[in-house]
What we know:
4 copies of one chain form a homotetramer. With 230 residues, chain A is an all-alpha fold. The first copy, chain A, folds into 2 domains: 1-54, Arc Repressor Mutant, subunit A; 63-216, Tetracycline Repressor, domain 2. Chain A is 70% helix and 0% strand. The first copy, chain A, contains 11 helices and no strands. In chain A, α2 (11-27) runs antiparallel to α3 (35-42) and α2 packs across α5. Chains in contact: A-B, C-D. At the A-B interface, α7, α8, α9 and α11 of A face α7, α8, α9 and α11 of B. The structure holds a DNA duplex (21 and 21 nucleotides).
Amino acid sequence: xxxxxxxxxxxxxxxxxxxxxxxxxxxxxxxxxxxxxxxxxxxxxxxxxxxxxxxxxxxxxxxxxxxxxxxxxxxxxxxxxxxxxxxxxxxxxxxxxxxxxxxxxxxxxxxxxxxxxxxxxxxxxxxxxxxxxxxxxxxxxxxxxxxxxxxxxxxxxxxxxxxxxxxxxxxxxxxxxxxxxxxxxxxxxxxxxxxxxxxxxxxxxxxxxxxxxxxxxxxxxxxxxxxxxx
Amino acid sequence: xxxxxxxxxxxxxxxxxxxxxxxxxxxxxxxxxxxxxxxxxxxxxxxxxxxxxxxxxxxxxxxxxxxxxxxxxxxxxxxxxxxxxxxxxxxxxxxxxxxxxxxxxxxxxxxxxxxxxxxxxxxxxxxxxxxxxxxxxxxxxxxxxxxxxxxxxxxxxxxxxxxxxxxxxxxxxxxxxxxxxxxxxxxxxxxxxxxxxxxxxxxxxxxxxxxxxxxxxxxxxxxxxxxxxx
Amino acid sequence: xxxxxxxxxxxxxxxxxxxxxxxxxxxxxxxxxxxxxxxxxxxxxxxxxxxxxxxxxxxxxxxxxxxxxxxxxxxxxxxxxxxxxxxxxxxxxxxxxxxxxxxxxxxxxxxxxxxxxxxxxxxxxxxxxxxxxxxxxxxxxxxxxxxxxxxxxxxxxxxxxxxxxxxxxxxxxxxxxxxxxxxxxxxxxxxxxxxxxxxxxxxxxxxxxxxxxxxxxxxxxxxxxxxxxx
Amino acid sequence: xxxxxxxxxxxxxxxxxxxxxxxxxxxxxxxxxxxxxxxxxxxxxxxxxxxxxxxxxxxxxxxxxxxxxxxxxxxxxxxxxxxxxxxxxxxxxxxxxxxxxxxxxxxxxxxxxxxxxxxxxxxxxxxxxxxxxxxxxxxxxxxxxxxxxxxxxxxxxxxxxxxxxxxxxxxxxxxxxxxxxxxxxxxxxxxxxxxxxxxxxxxxxxxxxxxxxxxxxxxxxxxxxxxxxx
DNA sequence: TATGAATGAGTTTTCATTCAT
DNA sequence: AATGAATGAAAACTCATTCAT
Lengths: 230, 230, 230, 230
């Protein structure tokens, strides 16, 4: 948790630090990320960072649990709980891919949370983040069940949630990267790649994902409008 | 590639080294794993490791591309290509979970290949492994399509393969760990946990996964009854 | 190039480091000189050296191209270009020997630049230094030619410069050491030896050198009388 | 000193070891030369080297004090003590340059003996070699004095010997390398360079050197026939 | 006698963290 | 509050030398 000093920092100074920290942590594994680099690039004394955060992990934690989620939420917007469940689901997936494309560094930071290696401290952190995501997804699926959009006789909600999370998490990320013909690192380096995964393409991918999930979750097969069958 | 010297090592010495190396690399991300630690715990001179392997990466690569796959293949056995597609698929998944439970350190090592952080050299290594796995799965699914077991009108085999891989990879791992009520690291520490995910439970989980996948891939819905309900 | 940090160091600390570095590099060939030793003897943390210099070579380069020449220039003073050529030449040689006797460690450092072994990086460094010395000497001899002090019918200035450089460089150093009845290393160890090569003796040696050079370069033979024969 | 075992070795095996040892020691400074490299390239077990020589230094010493001088002597032939002194001197110098050009690795090994850095053990070795060379040259110059070929009123034979040694040692080597437009290391690498310093060119350089020395040593100026003045 | 695996001390280098200014 | 110099533990890696076979 950042110190009050940090929170009261002039926006410019604060932003410089945050920006460079995100860059550094998104480009190298935690162990190899260097506070010296961050300090130097942000034009901030190394000692100052230690006045804002307890240590390297504290800074990383804050980025992962506060800064990144805040941006992500702002980007995704709030889903409309009233609309059609599957349409909403598909939109959510599409927005997720858009986030990956538009904010690759933040997305990368978040993706790192899935890394099952990592040192104990970092692992705890990652686990917390993952579970939060799972909880959110479970609630959403529960809504689907409640509205009848999901209706599989044998469904175990907990298990299904985790499997679906894998699809829309690592699964779709993998697909996107495959589409880009690049590794995440190369995406970070070149902004031009972003153009290669425009909204239309993203919608198609989201649709494929929903198709798989929908079938698996026992939804009626037909309602799949949009560019699908007609 | 290990030197002939290494391959000709007395079993005891060799095993000590391999064991401790797997432990180290499965407990920390590559960047944080320490050859000194490995040497010390294996009771082997640091210099000796450098007679067996070119460097840290060479040892890691060998574990990841030779040692782990060899054990995994031996454990999984060869699937029967003649039998029912979905039954075979379900078995494969069950064996995968069994491997995770019986050889958690090796499973963990393999899982690390999904780590999207890592330094360029390591990433290259990981990517190669992942793609190999994807290729294998794609071939398997293609067989399903050929036999009619998979029959979805809109199916894009490439995309589907990656999404299915996410389900049976990170997805099921996550589920298993949830079942164990523990993180992979805790599993590594305590062998007794293994008992909590016996064959029956594993079969049930595998079934749930196949359910999701099967529905998503447009297979006929009924045949899903095998060892399930009845 | 040393960092600003280094240049702003408290004199005491800075001197300790410089002194021990010169000692180390003057006592062993570059490859065998150890930063750990320097740090330990200078009572400075190993890490600190890396805040002052990029690496081992950077420190060595600075000593060789900045520190040593600065001291040498300060010691030698500026020669009087107006005076008699050969008298000036003889003085220069005498001062060179005096430097060797008074600052043996620095002289030794400079002499090391003649080492034809060494690793490519170091060789490049050495070569640059040698060529700079040669250029300076060539200019000086050219002045002698211009003033008529040097007048040999067959003279090839480039070749002559290099041969003369050998005389006043390795040649005289060798003579001096012979006089001292010791190797340079023993000179380094015992300051008392310095007394055995006082100004008078040095002048005599310088005279012998000039004698050889002068004859070889075709100067008129007579004017050689100064403090020599009476 | 090599063990009897070594001396009794089959020529082939012995030669392989000697050849690779010379190569290694002529390409890197003593500290960086690697016995492992030598053993590997010579196809001889590392342990065997320790049966032939006490240690790294022992091997190096033998090369420097036995092997290299033997070859050099064989190459130079015995000078004719009866002929004209200066003509003989010039021939000696020319042969020395020829040796440098024809056997660069051996020459390089010998040149290293001039390196004033080096660790105490190595230094002692170098010093002994140098003094041997000096003694030989002094004897030769003494012969010149006896025959009247050298006749300088103020001559100090000891000093003169050392200065002349500097000319025909480091001095001429330097000139030769300058002629070749290359560093000694580059000479080692490319045999084609040898052609650029053929006998004619070498004679001219030798002549220039003798010119300088002769004048300096007070010889009569005229007898310098050959391509000199006419 | 020949072998080459094993050893471990020693090297350069990095970096999170502290603390005096 | 901000600074950035100082620190030292730890890492990867090398290589002369030993010694059991």
